[in-house]
Amino acid sequence: MNARARSGMLLLGLALLAAAVARAAEPPPAVRVERERVPLERYVDGTIEAVNQGTISAQTSGRVREVLYDVNDFMPAGAVIVRLHGTEQRAGLEQAEAALAEATTREAEAAQQFDRVAALLERRLVSRQQYDQALAARDAAVARSAAARGALAAAREGVRYTEIRAPYAAVVARRHIEVGEAVAPGTPLLSGLSLQFLRVNVDLPQGLVGPVRELRRAAIHVAGRRIEATRLTLSPQAEPESGTFRVRLDLPENAADLYPGMLVKVAFVVGETERLLIPAGALVERSELQSVYVLGADDRIALRQVRTGHRFDDRIEVLAGLLPGERVVTDPLAALAVLRDPSRRALAPAAD
After folding, report:
1. Which of 35, 53, 160, 204 could lock onto 274 through a cystine, CB 3.0 to 4.6 A?
2. For residue 2, is it within any domain?
3. Do 266 and 220 meet the contact criterion of CB atoms below 8 Å apart?
4. SS3 content of the chain, % helix, strand, coil (to 5)
5. What's the rounded Cα separation, in Å, for the pair 30 and 282?
């Protein structure tokens, strides 16, 4: 390789090294934080409950033959959950079927007799009284057939009542009976609740009723999550003893990790205010400390402790530790890589 070629390779290598250093010296991505107008909220304690919940009771008499679901079991809609011995009900069904067969036969016989008497009356071979008697007998036979069909329908329903089914998909919360127990109509069998649709009950102070009734916006805070309510229902009157207004908040369908009886914080929107917000991904949490990487005017990176407030979707309120206009690194891992890379010390804060 001649001298000119070696010189060209050297210049190319220096150019590539300069480009690599320039790329290494680029600061990590950052955003300038400013105060933004966000909803002003007031917080009240609430309790989660299931929209669909209740106790399934027996609708016929009998002895419990089988209990197919127990506490904490999921029972699908329409599934058989309890079976009763139905000997009495099946015997009643057989009697009702026999009574209907007899009534149907007598109805046909009475109809034929009426037709014969009506034909004889046209030829003036029978009296009007005989005709009226045949007509009454036919109508009575028709009524007895209708009654027999009603009794048969009731008997069939009684047999169906020996298999108790779940009215909707739910989880068994309580079991009230055991196998072998005798039950009567109205005896509680199983209590269940559905986790598909949940809501929150809140006792709202009088001072918040006006803004809440006007804006109708609220959310719950639980386990670090914020869940917007889909609907608010306010009571038209205050509770006599406490003077508070009962508010019901419907939650999204199939809300994960929420269960009836849980206590949650409910945030009601009552107006607007200004807050300093940062992206949620910019927050660094170590044990109980919360910090962010701040990018200075000279692109030096510093880790600064902050105090946070509430979360708004993918942003978090900063109560202390930051000033409007400062730049916050949105990728903490990139900021950490800068601080650890000796080739990028130009961006790191100078040692004291």
Report:
1. 35
2. no
3. yes
4. 35, 35, 30
5. 9
